[in-house]
Amino acid sequence: MRKDLRTAIRDARVHLEGAQRIAVLTGAGMSAESGIATYRDAQTGLWEKYSPEQLATAEAMSDQPDLVWSWILHQARVIRSVEPHEGHNVLGTWQRELREKNGALDIITQNIDDLHERGNADVLAHLHGSTFSFRCFECDAPSDYELQTATPEQLAARPELDQLVLEDPPPCTQCQHGFIRPNIVLFGEMLPQQAMNDALDAVRSADVALVVGTSNIVQPAASLPIAASAAGAKIIEINPNVTPLSEDADVYIADTAGNVLPELYR
Asked: Which residues are tagged catalytic?
């Protein structure tokens, strides 16, 4: 039976008291609270006729690099148009405090935005990559390219508000004939193995795992709370919607990260 909110938060605090190692697993719901639509949500405006499944593939980037790159720029501008919410900011503060006590708060996210970083937290593993780091599409060499997102004033003046203006991706400076792509996991690609290894190490050494705003359906990320529980960690789920994990979590809190994480930290 679902506990009322106050009782659930109280029980979660009991598990967190004295915890030296906390693993935080975040999904799309964490970013949606800041105003970023989930990856598969319908596109808006000039991108309405495209779906992420059409654009976010290696085949699409090979065939129409200007179209896919322009869509990536659009996504980046959406990300940079919103701010981290209080849940992001609390994790940054909590992480620093535990480090000072020789503990750890490890953040593992399925999100490709930089809201955790802008909330002053370090991310151990971006399981699906990041919109703001790059490598060559051809030779895979890492790139130090920095994505410059437009200001609201610049966006207001852009002609793409009336018609779709496509931009070519920057060339690779290593192989000279390739072009760069973001370090995100496109449809059909494998998750970065190092990120998954780091995530497994973190959850297996955690005293508590906070599972925040994720559907707990997409694999292999959905296996991480199970691995944490098998290693002895207490599982606290924060999600306004029930997921396949909710029944088995030690504590399920039916609310959003922005509301709950500050309460748990306090």
From this structure: 128
Strand partners for 252: 237
For residue range 106-146, list pLDDT tens digits in order: 999 999 999 999 999 999 999 999 999 999 999 999 999 98
Q: Are 215 and 27 in contact (CB under 8 A)?
A: yes
E strands present in the chain: 21-26, 104-109, 125-126, 129-136, 142-143, 180-184, 208-212, 234-238, 251-253
Identical fold, 1-35+85-128+191-266 and 37-81+130-184: no
Q: What's the pTM value of the predicted model, to 2 decimals?
A: 0.89
Give the pLDDT of residue 214. 94
Residues 6+ apart with CB under 8 A from 13: 264
Q: CATH topology for 37-81+130-184? A: SIR2/SIRT2 'Small Domain' (3.30.1600)
Query: For the domain bounded by 1-35+85-128+191-266, which CATH number is listed?
Result: 3.40.50.1220
